[in-house]
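To: structure desk
From: M.T.
Subject: fold request, one chain
Message: Could you run this one when you get a chance? Sequence is below, nothing fancy, just the single chain.
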Amino acid sequence: MRQIGKKMTLMSSKTADQISYNMRQVKNKDSKIELALRKALYVRGIHYRKNVTSILGKPDIAFIGLKIAVFCDSEFWHGYNWDVRKNDFKTNREFWIPKIERNMSRDKEVTAQLESEGWVVIRFWGKEILADPDGCAQVIENTIKARKCQNV
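Reply: Done. Structure tokens follow.
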């Protein structure tokens, strides 16, 4: 342990430079989960827009005319199983816990706002996509078909 100010913190096994490098490598678009889902959609001949900045929340995949927004949420950044996982943070808890909790509340706010504007919002966890990209693509395809029947 090392003392920082009056607080004692556990030292990470990585240096600050290593941690900084690792965090810079985190992608906010074209991640492995997004690529897997987009490939499954492409194989089905489904055309989409990606990372649309003009839509609230900047969905990973969007069908603008049908008002369908798809988000590929990674477990770490979006708080999967949060009640258990937040106890995994051993260092810099004062930073990480509020950050991830804010991400979670922002996800809820974005979903509520988009739905109030007539959008269908689909959220997948990364592990869902990696385990069954075709199943996730089927959910999207079914939603597209349903929206076309509604003449949105």
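Reply (cont.): The mean pLDDT is 86. Let me know if you need anything else for the meeting.
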